[in-house]
Fold each of these.
Amino acid sequence: MTEPARDTIVAVATAPGAGGVGIVRLSGAGASAIARTLAGRALRPRHAHHVRFRDARGEVLDDGIALYFQGPASYTGEDVVELQAHGSPAVLQELLLRCCELGARRARPGEFSERAFLEGRLDLAQAEAVADLIAAADARAARAARRALDGEFSRRVDAIADELLAIRVHVEAAIDFADEPLDTLGGAGLGKRFDALALALAALLRAAERGRRLRDGLHAVIVGPPNAGKSSLLNALAGSDRAIVTDIAGTTRDLLQETIRIDGVELTLVDTAGLRDGGDAIEREGMRRARAELSRADLAIAVIDARDPEAGHAAVADAIAGVASVLWLHNKSDLLASGPAFDPGTDEVLHVSARTGAGLDALHRRLRGLAQGEGEDAGEGAFTARARHVDALLRAQAHLVEARGQLDHEILDLAAESLRLGHDELGAITGRVRPDDLLGHIFSSFCIGK
Ligand SMILES: Nc1nc2c(ncn2[C@@H]2O[C@H](COP(=O)(O)OP(=O)(O)OP(=O)(O)O)[C@@H](O)[C@H]2O)c(=O)[nH]1
Ligand SMILES: [K+]
Ligand SMILES: [Mg+2]
C-alpha cells in the first residue's frame, strides 16, 4: 500500500498568547516555495535568514528570521520551514493565513509529529514522549520524557522483541521439522532463554509502570472508616476547604479529586466515603466507588483514628489488600494521651493531626518521595511511559506465560501463535505493528504545531 502524497501543513508552533518571538512552522513539499514567496528570496538550508514577510500586495507583515530544513534531515522528515516573527498573536495569524493563501493547510494537533513517525524519524513511543515532554509537570518528568524521546524505552522494548523473535524462529523451525527433538533445533538453552526473556520483560514492566507514574503523577486514594478525618486531611494537604467536614459519620459520599503539588511534584488525591458495614443506599454506593477507586490507586493513604487503630485497621484491611503501597496515618494524634503501640506489619505508619497540623511536614516529605519513586531501583535513567505501554507489556507477558506452558506440553503450533501475539504487542508500543485507530487516537491528544 502506498501512502498518498502529503500536502503542506502549517501551524503556529509557539504557545498561544503574546511573547517576544513566535514561530510559524511549515512542513511538506511546498514549504520552501511558500517561504520563498513570503520572504521574497530563496532560503538556503540550515541558514538563518533575516527577512521581511510580505502579504499578497507586497506590504510588510513583519520582519524576522526564516529557517529552512531540507528533508529528510528535518523534524518531520519532509521539507520544513520555521518563520520566526514577533510573538504577536495578530502577526502570527496573518503569517499563517498568508501561508494558507500560498497553498498550505492548517495542521491538525500532533500532525508534525505524526509525519515524523510516518517518515521514520521517530518511533511511536518516541513521538508520544514529545507530547509528554511538552506537558511534563516538573523537571523530573521532563528529564524522563527526554530519555524516552532519546529512545531509551524503545531500545529496551526492541531488545525484548528481537529475542522473542529469535525464540519464535526456533519454535517455527521445530514445527517444520517435526521429527527432530525441539532441543536440537532450539538449542539446549531454549528454556533458559525463555526465563531470561521473562525476567527482562518483568524488569521493563516495572520501569514502564514507574514511567507511567512519572508522566501521570502518583494517584493516591484516601480511605478509612467514617469520621477518621479523611476529608480533613484532604483539606489540610490541599490547603483549602475543598471537602465538607462534619462530625457526622458518612459525610462524604462521592469521590472528591484534588491535584496537589509538593515542592513542584504533582500528585492526585482522592477523598472517599468512609468504609463501614451498613449505611443507607447512598452511602453504600459511595463505599462501592471508594473500593473501585482503590483498584486504580498507586498508593492507599489509610486514615484511621489514632485512639483505636485496631478497629480502623480492621475496617479497611480487605479494601486495601490489592494496592501496591499503603501509608497508614494515625490521625487525631492531638487527642492521644500517650504514644500508641499498634504495628500494621510491613506498612509504614505516620502520626498526624489534620486539626493541629502536627506530623504534616513528615507526611509531605513522604508523599513527595513516593511520587518521585524514592526507594525504587533505577531512579536514574528513568523514562516516561503511558498506560498504553504498560497494558501492552502486561499482555505480552501473559502471552509469554501461555507460550511457555504450551512449549512444556510440546503444543508447538499454539506456542508459536502465543509468541507471535506477544511479539505484536511489543511492536504496537513502538508502532511497528499498528492497529487501525491507534495513530489518530494518539496524535489527536497533541497540541497544534507539534
Ligand atoms: N481532634 C481532631 N479532630 C479531627 C481531626 N481530624 C478530623 N477531626 C474531626 O473529626 C470529624 C470528622 O472529620 P472528617 O474529615 O469529616 O472525617 P471523614 O473521615 O472524612 O468522615 P466521613 O466523610 O464521614 O467518612 C470532624 O469533626 C473533624 O473536625 C484531628 O486531627 N483532630
Ligand atoms: K464526617
Ligand atoms: Mg469525609
Amino acid sequence: MKKIIENGTIVTAADTYKADILIENEQITAIGENLDAPDAERIDAKGCYVFPGGVDPHTHLEMPFGGTVSKDDFETGTIAAAFGGTTTVIDFCLTNKGEPLQNAIDVWHAKSKDKAVIDYSFHLMISELNKEVLDQLPAIMDNEGITSFKVFMAYKNVFQADDETLFRTLKMAKEHGGLVMVHAENGDVIDYLVSEALEKGNTDPIYHALTRPPEVEGEATGRAAQLTGLADSQLYVVHVSCAEAVEKIAEARSKGFNVWGETCPQYLALDQSYLERPNFEGAKYVWSPPLREKWHQEVLWNALKSGQLQTLGSDQCSFDFKGQKDLGKGDFSKIPNGGPMIEDRVSILFSEGVKKGRISLNQFVDIMSTRSAKLFGLYPKKGTIAVGADADVVIFDPNVERTISVGSHHMAVDYNAFEGMKVTGEPVTVLSRGDFVIRDKNFVGETGKGRYLKRARYNQLLAPVDEKLKI
Ligand SMILES: NC(=O)NCCC(=O)O
Ligand SMILES: [Zn+2]
Ligand SMILES: [Zn+2]
C-alpha cells in the first residue's frame, strides 16, 4: 500500500524543509511539494518534524552478564526502541575463546529472529586474535555482513582482551576494511582499585564510580587511539563518559587518526550523585564507565556540538532493580552493569540538546541516526530521508511535554533511570520499511518483522577505496 506523509517538516543531517514523502514497496520513492498518488494512504504530519528513524549503534539485548541476563530481549527491546523513535539497532554478539565465531553468531540470530520488530544488525566481540580466528573473519564479513569488531579493555577475567589482541584487531581491520570498537577503561587498574575498596569494607554502589575514575578511561582511550595511529587503522570508542576521554579522542583526531567517539544519554543527563541514593537505589545507576561529576556533561555536549564525538548509543543493557541489580547488595562489584536507555535515547537528545540550544536540529539527526548509519555501513538505506532510502520514518511532535516514568515506558524493567524527568518532544508515528510500527503512540507492529541487516565495510563508504576491495 502506498503512503504519503504530508504537511510535515523534513529534517535530515543536512537540511530542514517542508515537503511530502511518497512511500512504496518499503522505500521512499519521491519527495516534493503536493505529492499525489490516487491510491495512497495519506498521513498528516502537521506541526511535526519528519526525520529518519534512529540508528542505535550500541545495544545488549538478552545478554548474559554479571551473573544474570539483561532483561529486555529483541522483542521488548525493539518495541521500546520503536516507541522512542529508533528503527535500527546494532547489538553486540558475544564470543567465547576457542569457539568458532559462527557458533556465537548463530546464537545471536536465534535470539533475534522472529522477535525483532525493527531492523537490526550485529557487531562481533573479539576476545583473542590468533591465526584460527583471523582465518574466519573475511568469510564472516562477506557472509554475515558483520564489519565492526568490539574489543573490551576492561572487565578483567570476563571480557577483557590484552593490548596485543587490540593491536592485531586494528591491523586486521585495516587490511579488511573493518571498524574496531573499544570499551576503553583500564581493567587491570580497576581490578586493583576494586579489591582495595572491598578490603576496606567499602561496599556501597558509589564505590563503583570511585574505583573507575576518569583517569582510567582517559588512559585506555589514549592507548587505543595511539595503537590506532600506529596501525593506521580506524577506531570507534563506545560510551565515552568524561572529559579525559574526550581530550584523547580530540588529540588523536587532530593528528589525523581515524578515531570516532560515542556517548550515551546517561552521561549527558545523569551524574555521579545518583549512585549515592539511599536504600541501595544507587545500584540503578551503575554503568561502566560510571556516571561522572556533573561538570563532565557540558564537556560531552560541547564535544557533540563541535564534532569531536559523533554518535549517541543507548548502551541498552537493562536489569530489574529487584532480583538483578540487588545481586550486588553488600558488594558493589557484583551489581550487574548497565541500564535501560533504548527508549529515551532520542527524546533525551532532542529535549536536552535541541530544546536547550546545545545542538542544532540537523546535528540531532546526525548524532542519533545518520552518522551511525554511515560509520557502520548502513547508509544511505538507513539514516536519511532520501529517494531510494528505506522508509524508516519518524513523525515527531516537538512541542508535547511529558514526564518520563516506569509507569508509561515500554521496556521490560522495573525502573526508569530518568524517572520524573520532564522532556519536550515525542515520536507520534514510526514506520519501519514503510510499515507502521507505532501509530498515534500505539504499537501496531509485528513481532519478527524486523530484518537482519548485512553491512558494508568501513572503507567501502568512508576511506579511499582500497584496491583489493573495489566497489
Ligand atoms: N556499560 C555497561 O555498564 N553495561 C553494558 C556492557 C558494556 O557496554 O560495557
Ligand atoms: Zn562497555
Ligand atoms: Zn555496551
Amino acid sequence: KETGDILVYTVATEETNGFDRYLDSASEFNIQPKILGFGHEWRGGEVKTHPGGGWKLKLLKTALEPFEGDDNKLVLFTDAYDVIFLGKLDEIVRRFHKTGARILFGAEPYCWPDAGLETKYPEVKEGKRFLNSGMFIGYVPEVLKLLSRKEIDDQDDDQLFCTEAYLDEKFREDAQIKLDHTNELFQNLNGVAGEIEIISKPTKEGDIDKYYVKNVLYQTEPIVIHGNGASKHTLNYLGNYVPNAWNSVEGCRQCKKGLINLEGLPSKDVPVVLIALFIEHNTPFLEEFLNKIHNLQYPKERIHLFIHNAMKFHTDHVNNFTEKHAKEYVTLKQITPDDAIPEWTARDLSLDHCLTKKCDIYFSVDSIAHIDNPYTLKLLIEQNRTVIAPLLTRPGKAWSNFWGALSKDGFYARSNDYMDIVHSEKRGLWNVPFISNAYIINSTLLKSRDRTVINYTKPKVDADMTFCSNLRKIDVFMYVSNRVDFGHLINPDNFDTTRTEPDMYQIFDNAQDWEDRYIHVDYPENFNPEKKDLQPCPDVYWFPIVSERFCNSLINMMENFGKWSSGTNNDERLVGGYEAVPTRDIHMNQVGWEPHWLHFLQKYVRPLQEKVFIGYYHDPPKSLMNFVVRENYRYRPDEQPSLRPHHDSSTYTINIALNRRNVDYEGGGCKFIRYNCSVVDTKQGWLLIHPGRLTHFHEGLQVTNGTRYIMISFVDP
Ligand SMILES: O=C(O)CCC(=O)C(=O)O
Ligand SMILES: [Fe+2]
C-alpha cells in the first residue's frame, strides 16, 4: 500500500495550543508525524514559522538522509503550529499522484519574501501563482536534491530557499516541481479567506453530517490547511468545525476533549483560584455583580480575591461587600480609587499577584460581567483550556464579550457564525481572536512567560486588546464557551451617577437587572390562574408589584429632591395652575423619571389592569399625573394629614404603598365611600388599582403618627 511508504515530518520546538491541534488532527486520520527539533531552542529566526526557517529544512535534510536510496519513498512536510490535516494519507498521496509532480508545494497569492521575484514566476492560467514552503510533498530523492541544492543556514528563509529552486527552470524541470495552484491538496489561507467556506454534508456512511473546507473559487476541497502569515485566526475559525470538531450528531466534539472533573474532590485538592475583579467604570447593579461572584459554587478556602476599584462611586459597594465576606476567602487584596492605579497596571499586577499566591487558575471578571450561573468557575476549569471565557451577551442584543474575527488592523470583525453563537443557536467551544470581560487563564501559561510577553500595557491601547494581541502573538488560543448559559453583560452606557438612586433609571438599558432588583418577587404569581385576585373593596384590586428596595429608593429620590408641593390649590406644575384636591407631593417629571415610570406602567401595571378590568385595552397607558405623596402627621391644623372625598381624573388609579403601616406611620389608608369600605392595612410594595371616576368616590384617611408615602398615577385621564 502506498501510504506505508510516506514519511510525515514537521518541526516544533515546544508544545503550543496550535501544535496540540495539529497532533489532534493527525490522529483523527491515524497520521503519525515525526516531530523534528522538539525541546530545542528555536534556531530559525524570531518568527516561528518564517522568515528564517532554514533550520527547519536542515532538520528535514538530516532526517531524510538515511532514506536517500529509497526511490519510491514519499515525504510530506508541513509546519506544525498553524497546520491542520483534513484527510487521510492515502487520499493525500492519491491527489499528489494526480498532479504528476515529483515535488508539490502549496501555492499562495503573494510573492514572498522577495516580491522582486514575481516576474521570474511562470504565468498561471488559473489559481495562485507563488510558492509557499509551509507544506509540500515529494519523492525523497528529489526532496533531498532540493535540500542539497545550496548550503542552508539556520537563519535563512526557507521559503526563499525553495522559491529559488523553483525559479531555476532547469532544476524545476529536472525535479518536476509543481505548485498546487488551485488547492487540490494544500490550502494556504493568507489573503484568501473570501474563497474559503465551511460546508456540511453527509459522510459516505450516510447518517451523519460533517464539516469540510471548500475553496469556492476553484471548487476544490483541500485536505491540508495552513494558517500562514496573518491568517491564523482564519485557521482557528475553521478549526472550530474541522476535522470533525463539530458534527450533526455529537455537536461540539472538541468540547468533550481533555476535560477534567472536579466533582467530588475534597476542597483541599481543587485548583487554587485568584479571582480578580475590575471596576474601571461606574456600573449599574454592582451589588448584584459582587453577590454573583460570592455565589459561585467553589470552595472559598481555595479562592484569593483581588479587587481593583477605580471608581469612588463604588467605594461603599465594595466596602460593604468586603466587610461582610472577605473573611471567607483565603486572602483579599484591594486597590482603591485613592491608590490611583491605572487599569493596565492593575491588570498586570493581578497576574503577578496570582503567581505570588501560587494560583492554579486566574479568573478575571469586569464589573459589567454578571456571572449568573453559579457553576461557571467550576465548569470553565473543568473545560481545561489555557484561556477560556464564558459567553456573555447583552440580553437581546448582538453585543458580546468576544469577537468572531479580526479586521486587517486588528479590530472587530464579525464571523459568519457570530450571530449563531451569540444567540446560542450553536452551542460549543469557539476558538476566537478576542475575548474580554470574564475569562480564566491556566497559570501554567503565566508561569511560562513573564510580564514582558503577557501583559495588558501598551500606551493608548485598550487593555483587553493588548492582552489578546499578546496571546495571539504566542499562539495561545482564546476560547469562548456557550455550552451552557453563563451570564450576561450590563450596559453601562447611560448610567448617570449624578442622579440619586441611578440604578432606578436603568429600566431601559438593563431591563432584566432592573426587574430582578426592583420588581416584587411575587409579581409573577399575580398571573397564576390558580390564584384568586385579592379584592379588599368592590373593584379595588390588590397586587404585589415592587420590591422593598424600589420603595426605599423612590422615597430616597424624592426626599433628596426635597421640593414637596405646598398642598394648596395653586399648583404651577399643572396646566391650569389649579388643583382641586391638593396633596403634598413631587411629580415624577421633577426628578427626570417620567419616561421610566410610564414604561413601568406599560410593562408591569397594564397586564394587571387587563386581567381585572376585562375588555379595557389602552396600550401604552397614558398618565400626566404621576407623583409620590408624603403625608406627615402634624398637630398643626394647616398641615393636612388627610385628603377630602374626591374623584380622581383617571380611568383607573394606581396607588402603591411605599412604606410600612404601624412601623413607619400609623393611621392612613383609603376609604371608598360608596361602598363604605376602607383599605387601611396596606402593604409596602403592593399596588391598589381602582376605577377613577363615578363609582370610586374616595378619601385619604388621617395619618395619626409618622410619615406615610404613596405613589399615585392617574392612568388614562
Ligand atoms: O391616601 C390615599 O391612599 C389616597 C390618595 C388619593 O386618593 C389621591 O392621591 O388621589
Ligand atoms: Fe384619589
Amino acid sequence: MTTPTKGLEGVVAAESSISSIIDDQLTYVGIPIDDLAENASFEEVVYLLWNLKLPNETELEEIRKALVENMKVPEGLIAHLKSYDLKSVHPMAALRTAVSYMSLYDENPEKLDRESNLKRAIRIQGNLGAIVTAFARLRNGEEPVQPKPEYTFAENFIYMLNGRAPKDIEVEAIDKALVLHADHELNASTFTARVCVATLSDMYSGITAAIGALKGPLHGGANEAVMKMLTEIGEVDNAIPYVKDKLANKEKIMGMGHRVYRNGDPRAKHLKEMSRQLTELVGEEKWFEMSIKIEDYIKEEKGLPANVDFYSASVYHSLGIDHDLFTPIFAVSRTSGWLAHILEQYENNRLIRPRADYVGPEHAKFIPLENRE
Ligand SMILES: CC(=O)SCCNC(=O)CCNC(=O)[C@H](O)C(C)(C)COP(=O)(O)OP(=O)(O)OC[C@H]1O[C@@H](n2cnc3c(N)ncnc32)[C@H](O)[C@@H]1OP(=O)(O)O
Ligand SMILES: O=C([O-])CC(=O)C(=O)O
C-alpha cells in the first residue's frame, strides 16, 4: 500500500466543470471570480453553477422568482425551529438539523433524476435563507418575516433578517459576499457532500453533511473565530503583541493561511475593500486597521495570506450581524456550490471509497472480558 498523503493535500479526487483554482486564480465555469464579484448577482451565480452557463434575462428572472418563492418560511419549519433551545443552540447546529428535518417534507427524496433534483435544489437554496433568518429572529423573540416577491435573494435575506427595507450598501455587501463564497472546487465541505451522495443517498443528506463540515473553525467556522479574535484584541495597538503571543504558543491565527492558495486568496481583496468602506461608514475603522496589521504581519512572518474568512468578519460585523450568524451566511452561499457538485456527482457517479494504511497492532489476541484490566 502506498504512503497516504496527510490531509489528501494535492490529491486530485474528482473531475469537475464547476469551479477551478489554477495558479491562484479562481473561476466559476471558467469565468474569473473578479468579473463575477464586480458584475454578477447571486442568482446569476446560482444559475451558472447549476447549468454551467450564464442565464439570459428570462432565465434569470425565472430563477430569482423561484428562489424567492422558496424563501417563504414553511409553517412546519417555524414550529420546528421554535422547539429548539433558541438561546443556547449554535445557529450552525440549528441549520444542520433544520435541513435534515426538511427532507421529511419531501414526498420522495430518493427520486434522483436531474429534473427532480433541480426542483429540490431551488427548494433547499431558498429555504436555507429562510431558516437562517427565521432562526435569528425567533431567538430575539421576533416573528419570522416573509420574503417580498419583487426583491432579489440578497435583498430578501437582509429584509428577512432585519424586518426592514435593506439599504443599498447592505445589498451590495451581502450580494458580493454570497457571490464570493458560492463555490470553491473540492474544499472540505464540498468533498463531504460528494462523498455522501456518491452512496446514492439523497440531496438533504449531502447538504446536512456539508453543513457539518463547514461548521469547523479550520473551514467556514473561521469567520466567526476571526471576529472573536478581533474582539479579544480590542484596540489596534494590541494587534501585533496579540498575534506574536499566539504564534509563540503555536496557535493559529484565524482567517490566515490556505491549503491551495500560496500567494493570496483572490476573494479576500474584494472583502477587504468592502470592509474598508463599511467600517468607515459605521465609524469603526479600528476593525479594518487591526485586520490590516495582522494580515501584513502574518504575511511577513509566516508567508501566509489572508483567506476569504478574514475580511468577511469585519464586513458582517459592520452590517450589525450577530457573530454566530457569519458561518450560516457562508453556508447559505455555499449551498449553491454544494448543490452544483451534488448534481455533478449524481450525473457521473461512482462510490467514493479510498483506502487506509493500517498502522495499528497486528496479530492481537482476543482477551475474555473477565481477564481484561
Ligand atoms: C473558507 C476556508 O475554509 S478558508 C480557511 C479557513 N481556516 C482558517 O482561517 C483557520 C486558520 N488556518 C489554518 O488552520 C490553515 O492555514 C488551513 C487549515 C486553512 C490550511 O491548513 P494546511 O494546508 O493543512 O496547513 P497546516 O495547518 O498543515 O499548516 C502548515 C504550516 O503553516 C502554519 N500555519 C498554517 N496556517 C496558520 C495560521 N492561520 N496561523 C499560524 N500558522 C499557520 C502551521 O502551523 C504549519 O506550520 P509548521 O509547518 O511549522 O507546523
Ligand atoms: O478551498 C478550501 O480549502 C477552503 C476555502 O477557501 C473555501 O471552501 O472557500
